[in-house]
């Protein structure tokens, strides 16, 4: 049984016995959030050596964590995280998360049909939303491929962000997103490389890289390619609604 269900059952029991739905002091509350991710870029916002290109994201995978992390900084990427970061194919990673005890719940953010970049890229101006129900001591994690790359994703910190905000508060957390190179495919110039989604011959095409999951410094990868500042093209807000 999930912690949320256990909590819900506990609240019901308290209601029946003490006519109160408030959790005992010090216990986590049930909380609900509306989460909105917007690609705020305009068309042709990316300057490359081959001309201008749109900034596009793949749908993301979000998760509510009871502990631990969504991915392991410094570790080797699983084949499912590789698929998320190389091809915007989120299905395998979602299946992996659903089998992990420290992940209370997880789903796709940004695809009303299917789960992948090919199904539903998040284009300039697109807005995607999800509502989550969680506990106030849990954390929220998110990862999505930066689609004009070989194996770069944008993600919240691996341990997620806190969900113990004030009721009705809205927080903007784009500044907490960072680029991560998951270390499975050698990087080419963003939006120019032939082995990136939309251009590659098949999923997974590209030169193998035996690296680790590494956060980019100053929006620049180890090969020297620069990426646009995330807060310049993403708005990510969490509003606590319950
Ligand atoms: Ca790479
Ligand atoms: Ca590739």
Short description:
This protein has 242 residues and is α+β, with helices and mostly antiparallel strands. It has 3 helices and 13 strands, in the order αββββααβββββββββ.
- CATH architecture classification name: Sandwich
Cofactors, ions and other ligands in the entry: calcium ion
- First and last CA, distance: 22 Å
Task: Return the string of H and E elements.
Answer: HEEEEHHEEEEEEEEE
Q: Output the CATH homologous superfamily.
A: F-spondin domain
Query: How many structural domains in the coordinates?
Result: 1
Strand content: 25-35%
CATH class: Mainly Beta
How much helix, percentage-wise, in residues?
10-25%
Cα Rg? 19 Å
Provide the low-confidence segments as ranges: 11-21
Q: Report the principal-axis shape.
A: globular
Question: In this structure, how is the largest beta sheet organized?
Answer: 7 strands, antiparallel
Please describe what this structure looks like.
The chain has 242 residues and is of the alpha+beta class. It has a single domain, classed as F-spondin domain (Immunoglobulin-like), CATH 2.60.40.2130. It is built from three helices and 13 strands. It has helices at 3-18, 79-87, 91-98; strands at 30-39, 46-48, 51-53, 57-65, 103-109, 127-135, 139-146, 152-155, 161-162, 170-172, 178-181, 214-215, 234-240. The strands form three sheets. Strands 4, 5, 7, 8, 9, 11 and 12 form a seven-stranded antiparallel β-sheet that branches. A hairpin with a 5-residue loop joins strand 7 (139-146) and strand 8. The chain is globular and about 60 Å long. The relative contact order is 0.22. The model is unreliable at 11-21 (pLDDT under 50). The structure holds calcium ion (2 copies). The site of one calcium ion (CA) has 8 residues, from loops. Residues 150-151, 181, 183, 185-187, 209 line the site of one calcium ion.
């Amino acid at each position: 049984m999930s912690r949320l269900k256990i909590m819900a059952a506990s609240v019901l029991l308290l209601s029946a016995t003490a006519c109160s739905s408030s959790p005992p002091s010090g216990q986590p509350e049930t909380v609900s959030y509306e989460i909105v991710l917007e690609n705020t870029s305009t068309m042709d916002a990316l300057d490359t050596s081959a001309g201008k290109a749109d900034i596009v994201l793949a749908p993301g995978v979000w998760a509510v964590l009871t502990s631990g992390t969504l991915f392991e900084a410094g570790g080797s990427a699983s084949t499912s995280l590789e698929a998320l970061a190389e091809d915007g194919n989120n299905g395998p990673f979602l299946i992996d998360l659903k089998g992990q005890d420290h992940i209370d719940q997880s789903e796709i953010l940004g695809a009303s049909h299917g789960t992948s970049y090919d199904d539903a890229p998040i284009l300039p101006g697109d807005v995607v939303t999800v509502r989550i129900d969680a506990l106030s001591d849990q954390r929220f994690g998110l990862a999505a491929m930066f689609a004009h790359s070989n194996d770069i994703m944008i993600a919240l910190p691996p341990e997620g962000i806190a969900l113990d905000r004030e009721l009705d508060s809205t927080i903007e957390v784009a500044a907490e997103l960072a680029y991560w190179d998951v270390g499975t495919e050698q990087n080419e110039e963003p939006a120019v490389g032939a082995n990136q989604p939309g251009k590659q011959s098949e999923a997974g095409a590209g030169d193998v890289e035996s690296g680790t999951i590494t956060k980019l410094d100053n929006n620049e990868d180890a090969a020297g390619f620069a990426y646009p500042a995330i807060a310049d093209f993403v708005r990510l807000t969490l509003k606590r609604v319950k």
